[in-house]
Amino acid sequence: MIYLHVYSGLTSRCNTIAQAYQLAKKYNEKLIIFWEIQTDCNISYKDVFDARQFNDIKHKVVEYNAVLPGEPLERHISMLRRWLMRKMFLCFIKMRRGVCVDYAPPAEMDWIGKDMQERVVRCGKKVINTLKQKRSIFISAFNGLGIDEIPLTCCRKIIFKQKFVKRAEAMIDRRRMWIGVHIRRTDHQIATEYSTLDVFVERMKKMEQEYHSVYFWLATDDRRVENRVRKVFKDHVCVLRAKRWGRDSREAMECAVIDCLCLSKCNMILGSFGSSYSGFAARYGNKKLITINKNNI
Predict the structure, then answer these.
(1) What integer is the mean pLDDT of 105-120?
(2) Which DSSP string do the residues of 7-20 spell out, in sequence order?
(3) How many other C-beta atoms are found inside a 10 Å radius of the C-beta of residue 20?
(4) What does pTM read for this prediction?
(5) Residue 41 in contact with residue 13, Cβ under 8 Å?
(6) Can you say how many angstroms the Cα of residue 46 is from the centroid of all Cα atoms in its chain?
(7) 137-162 as b/e, with b when 16 or more CB fall inside 10 Å?
(8) How far apart (Å, rounded) are the C-alpha atoms in residues 157 and 203?
């Protein structure tokens, strides 16, 4: 049996659960997904995905809310509940003589860089070796499983709710040339540093010259960025109307899903450096991804 604990952003989770699904199918294992509702992904599993998702394997989804309320006492109680839930998962798997694999780095290691990449690869190998031994495994992962034999292109197995799919299809007119633009800002220092707004605008201007009558679908988490880009490109930039900003509400997360699907339906995507959101949209739509990096203009 595969016990999978997922956290962090929505598209990072999509990468993880898609790979876990393929592993469960390949090794004929039951998959149990522990879906943590957090402030940076404040939406339940059933509110995002179609009920048909992964229906060809034995699987179950267990949700628990880890959103921290405002009052100090409530925050402490919520954090204690998260800690107890995690301990319960680990004790349960150990009682079944299983193996635990935690992809999160130790405190002294950064979340990016060569050391982290090597850690992800080691964790992936441990997962495969455990499944080959027919032992149960508890996996805690934040963005894919780093397993080469299960490439991240498997994220196309994800099935979003039809209301999101239809909304995106209605906004992206296939008769036009569309370039998706994902400009990540508020919570992503690396994307902000390397994928500067000036470089995005410069690349978009070049594409206007290269393609006739091109339209841009802009997905961003920063209202000021949206305003500036729309001022430069005017009617050739389209955005999600009545958008809820942030990730700490269900309505905002639903907007994030629609934005991602719109990107995936464009002819190509200009993405932010180091962002799983850009990468997932490109893989999901099987589209070319051009990562904007000020060091590689």
Answers:
(1) 89
(2) -SSHHHHHHHHHHH
(3) 28
(4) 0.89
(5) yes
(6) 16
(7) bbbbbbbbbbbeebebebbebbebbe
(8) 32
Give yes or no for a contact between 39 and 46, defined as CB atoms under 8 angstroms apart: no
Least confident of 90-104, 127-141, 170-184: 90-104
Give the integer Cα–Cα distance in Å for 230 and 58.
47
277-294 pLDDT per residue, tens: 999 999 999 999 999 998
How confident is the model at residue 77, as a pLDDT? Answer: 63
* Alpha helices (H) in the chain, listed in sequence order: 10-26, 72-95, 114-132, 162-171, 189-194, 197-210, 223-233, 250-264, 276-285
Residue 71: φ, ψ to 5°: -75, 140
Q: What is the mean pLDDT of the chain?
A: 90
Tell me how far apart the alpha carbons of residues 59 and 53 are, in angstroms, rounded to a whole number.
10
Residue 64 host element (H or E): strand 59-65
Nearest-angstrom CA–CA distance, 29 and 230: 49
Kindly write down the DSSP assignment for every residue of 78-101, as one continuous string: HHHHHHHHHHHHHHHHHHTT-EEE
Q: For residue 267, which amino acid is it?
A: N
Residue 57 burial (10 A CB sphere; 0-12, 13-18, 19+): middle
